[in-house]
Structure formats: structure tokens, C-alpha cells
Amino acid sequence: MALAIRTESLSKAYGRVLALRGLDLEVEEGTVFGYLGPNGAGKTTTMKILSGLARATAGRAWVAGVEVTANPRAAQALIGAVVEVPRPYPHLTVAETLRYLGELRGLKTRVLNRRVEEVLGLLGLEQVAGRRGSQLSRGMQQRLALGAAILASPPVLLLDEPTSGLDPAGIVEVRNLVRQEAARGAAVFLSSHLLREVQETADVVGFLHRGVLLRVARVSEDAGAESYILEFAQEPPAEALEVASRMPGVVSLERKAPLRFALGFRGSPTERGELVAALVRRGAKVSYLGLASPGGSLEEMYISLIGGEGEE
Amino acid sequence: MSRPGGLSQGWAVFRYHLLMHARSKRIPGGLAMVALAALLALTLPPLALRMSPAGLQRPLTPETYAALSLSFASTVALLSAVLFGSDAISSEFERGTGYLILPYPVSRGTLLVGKFLASLLPTWSMVALFCGAVAFGVRVRFGAVPQGVLAGGAWALAVAGAELAVAYAISALMASSAVSVVATLLLFMLFLPLLDLAAGLAGARPLYSLSWASNIIEASVVGGAEWEALGLAARRVLARNPSPGQAAAIAAAYLAVGLSVAWARFRSREVK
Hints:
The complex is a heterodimer of chains A (312) and B (272).
Chain A: E1 3-14, E2 17-28, E3 32-36, H1 43-50, E4 58-63, E5 66-67, H2 72-76, E6 79-82, H3 94-105, H4 109-122, H5 138-150, E7 156-160, H6 168-183, E8 187-191, H7 195-201, E9 204-209, E10 212-218, E11 226-232, H8 238-245, E12 250-257, E13 260-265, H9 269-281, E14 286-293, H10 298-306
Parallel strand pairs in A: 3-8, 3-9, 6-7, 7-8
Antiparallel strand pairs in A: 1-2, 1-4, 4-5, 9-10, 11-13, 11-14, 12-13
Helix pairs in contact in A: 3-4, 4-5, 8-9
Chain B: H1 6-23, H2 26-50, H3 53-56, H4 62-70, H5 73-85, H6 90-94, H7 97-101, H8 108-142, H9 149-173, H10 177-201, H11 210-213, H12 216-219, H13 224-230, H14 233-237, H15 244-268
Helix pairs in contact in B: 1-8, 2-4, 2-5, 2-8, 4-8, 5-8, 5-9, 5-10, 8-9, 9-10, 9-15
């Protein structure tokens, strides 16, 4: 897959404070990249540089193949961004704001009209389309900013705390929106202080601490599940494995060696017992079932990498 | 994805920012300011002349009346420029609207020009309304409008444009809109007039000063010698009015420098 975002030794200093230290990052097209780190880690600084709001002190960055650091205007044509807390113009209505920003994008009238209607519907803004920016709640302002970001269906979305100020229903809508955008092929670079949100939305996560990218990890479907080692005395029947993989609590079942499987399991001990019983009933000779590692949630990964410096 | 041209983007910026001005409280505020200024401009000149012994001995002519009334135009121009321009750039950073618009593929220069023109139109409208009110008042009182009032109005527009450019520059330099407003007012109402006075007392022409150049507004109707004859103290000091060439050069320089500074700072300014 092609790279939608790439940075090479990207650094940013504010006076004597180094906000980013040689960031090397790669985000593929159609991927949701969760960007995690405590306050002051450099997440927003990264977003600002990628969106052209700030200049890198050193290093280079590319968005959809265009070098942001050399040609910010061309790169900005390829991104939609919600950085920090964008405020709408107080004297423009929601629909007018979207039209204004759409015109700046160069959308033709017919396309613009269609997209404005779509975005208003997608973000639940139809009822407030005629309301001015000064009359919007924080959550509505955030929805408007998201709408403006996706208006032109850009190949790269930079979303800095996109669920900030949203109610639970809004958070679910944004999660779905992010997945939809990724499904159409956009790369979504997402920072959030809600680790669970990132876990449920992101394909890949990066942990940033004091301007340094500590680790990039793929969020597997079994994140949060416990990992077990399941061994058999002889090759288990295919039907037994098929049934087992569909049983309650089973998140994944993957062969690691001829008679050895990695089992991702999220369920009660009773359900685990039922799983073994089901395997045995279908002729599988289970010789060992043991815990390989406790649940590998993002929270645990975050704590182990960054410690207790305030979740973000 | 295609990138739109700067012209169409600038047109969009102009239209939407004009719409914002039209919906803001600045328009009614500006109209109230113009009404008050016109009222003062049309009632105070006779009083001012009565305070001058030399003025008492001369009849109030349409030219003198028009010139004295038009002398308020520079204040109207300044207040209009402050009203529509002194937070134009700083507010984008201060209020957070910059986070919305600045990631868009539009150059800061295009944004600046579009916003400036959108501020210029209401600024000029206020100045034109004031000058129109003065012309109307002179006509009602004397039955005719002296030659030179139209030229004085045109000079007021030129001064307003130059002051707006400076207001934009200060707005781009300052972090806070309130500070920007105060700095612009102090520059044109205190700092430059003091320099004008010092230069006048020294017998020099302050060719660096837009506030001195703005004397061309009333000088278009009545010449410097007439002011001296009227014996108005401050005008006696400043009787050495700018020539049209000097005034035009100073206004053009303020416009060019103001917009250049605004563009240079806006272009390099990062969103914190």
C-alpha cells in the first residue's frame, strides 16, 4: 500500500523546548493511525506541521507524496484537518461556513451543493444549518470542523481529538465516520485522549513521548483479550477447530506450530471450560491450555511505555 | 485534487468576509459614529471660529465651513479603519478561526487581500457617508457646495485606505485584538500628531506623517493662507499643508508599507 503520510527526522523547537525530536513516521493509505501520548508529547505539533499551521525546525514531511515542508499549499489541497479547537466564524451560518471553505477548496457549485447536503446529514447538522457560528454549542462546533475536514473527501485526514466536546452518541458517529473515511481509502491520522476510542477505531497506533516516537504497533482484533497457548497431543480434526473458533469468547485461533495454537480469548472461565469440552467432544486431544500473556490492551501498552504521566 | 486559482479564492474570501462585516455590530456602530461625527462637524465650526479673534472679524464662507467640517473626515477615516481592520489578522489567531481556515490550500497573501478589500468597502462607505453628510449640510446652509469638497472626500478615502493598511499591519504584529486597536489609535491620535506638532514648531514639513498628510482633506477646499488668516492656533502651526503630490506619496507609502508588513507577518505567523 502507498504511503499517505511520511515524516523523516521531523523536529520542531519552540525556543529552547524541543516539541518533536527526529520523528520518523509512516502511515499507509486507508489506515486509521492512532497517535497517542501524554500532554506535551508533540502530537498536536505533528498535526500542525502536517497541516501547514507550523513549520518544522528540521526534517521533512510528505502528505500523499507531496512534501509539506517544501510545498505546504499543494499539500494542504490533499488534507482535511481538525487541529486543536477550531472555532467557526461567528457571523456565518453552518451551511455558509461549509460553502465558504468548499469554495476555497475549488469545489464546483453543483458538487459543493451536494457535498454540503451530504456532510450536514452525515454529521447531524441539518437542524442547525442556518444557525450562526456564535450560536453553536461546543459539540456542534466540533461537528462543523469535522464536516469542513471531510467536505472535499481528501486523501488524508488529520484529526486532533476529534471527539472532544461530543456526547456519547456523537462519539459513536465520529467513530463510524472515521471508519467510513478509511474504507474509501483515506488515511486518518487521529490523536485522542480516549484510549478505548483509539483501540476501537485505529488499525495502527503510535506512542509518542517527549517528542520521540517510542513504538508503532498494529491494533489486532484481539486487543484486550487474553492470549493462551493451546496444544494438542495429535493433529486436531478440522471440524473441531472450526467449531472452537466460533465459540463464545474466542477472538482468534491461530496455528503457531504443528500441534500448537495461539488462542485469543475474552470470556469467563466457564466459557473457557466449555471450549475445551467442545474440542474434546469433536475428537481433539487437548494436551495443554495455558495463559501466555494477560490482555494486551492499549492502556497496558501505554502504561508500560510511557508510565503514569497523564493519559492522553 | 485540483487546486483553485488565487483569484477565485480571493473573491470567496472577499464575499464571505464582507458578509461577516454586514452581519456584525460594526455596521450599526459605524453608522452611529458617522452620524455623531457629522452632527459635530456641522455644528462646531461656527463655534470654533467664534473662539478665534481673527475668525470673528470674517464672515463664515461656504469654503471655510466646508473645510472645517471636512477636517473631521480624518477622524472618521481612522475610526472606520480601526472598526473594520484593527483585529482582522489577530482575531484569526486569538479566537481560533485560524485553526479552521489556515489548513486550507489558500495562500496567506490571498486571504490578506480578500480580507483587506472586504474591510476597505465598509471603511470607505463610512467615510463617503460622512463626506456626503457634510456636503449636504453645506448645501442646506449656503445653497451650494464649494468646489474642492469632492476632492476633499476623495482624499479622505485615500487616507482611510492607508490607515486601514496600517491597522492591518498592527493587527498582524499583535497577539491581541484589543492591543491592536489601542496601538492603532495611539499611533494616529497621539504619536503622529505629536511628531507633526514638533515638526511644525521647528518649521519643517513632517513628510513621514500620514496624519499631517491628511490635512490635504480640508486643504482641498481652503488653502493654508486662509487658515492663518482665520487665526486658529493649531492650524497656524500646521499651516504648511502638504501638496497633493506629497499627500499622495505619503498615503501610497503607508498603504504599501502597511500591507507589506501585514503580509510578511501574517505569512510567517504560526498558529500557537
